[in-house]
Amino acid sequence: MRSSPRRSEVVLLAFLAVVFAVSATVVIGSVVHIERAGLTVEGIEDGAVVMSTDVPDISVTAGDPEILDQVEVLIDDTAIATHRDSGRVTLQDFDLAEGNHTLLARVRNATPLLLDAKVEHAFTITRCG
Q1: For residue 110, what is the enclosing H or E element?
Q2: 88-91 β-sheet, strand order
């Protein structure tokens, strides 16, 4: 003989359904945002070692050109000025000391709880000689 579900079981199932729905929305929304942004760093590879006299021009491109206006670029957690140049954002007026550095390009997600689109490159500047 089958008994009807207790109220606590129904409440638990409803709670789990809501948690699943919210989690799925966060994951799907984040993935769509990250893929739409499609951020790529050009001019320096992740893990590169560069002579201080040969620091290349660095730029960021995006899968969706309209997103370029929202790109933030940081080197070692310091915001870097950028300039929109056709289909890319180029870094301006930055001077790097010898040592290890981290470049982070990101587009913040306007929806709370959703992940930002970002790309990160670590590189090293060495002295000449």
Answers
A1: none
A2: 40-42, 59-61, 88-91, 82-85
Query: Is there a contact between 63 and 37 (Cβ–Cβ < 8 Å)?
Result: yes
- Measure CA of the first residue to CA of the last residue in the chain; give whole Å: 86
Q: For 73-103, what is each residue's pLDDT tens digit?
A: 999 999 999 988 888 899 887 788 899 999 9
Considering Cα of 47, then 48, then 53, then 56, what sign does the dihedral take? negative
Which residues, in sequence order, are bridge partners of residue 59? 42, 90
Q: Do residues 43 and 56 make contact, with C-beta atoms less than 8 angstroms apart? A: yes
- From residue 126, how far is each of 40, 48, 79 by CA, in Å? 24, 11, 22
- Enter the pTM of the model: 0.69
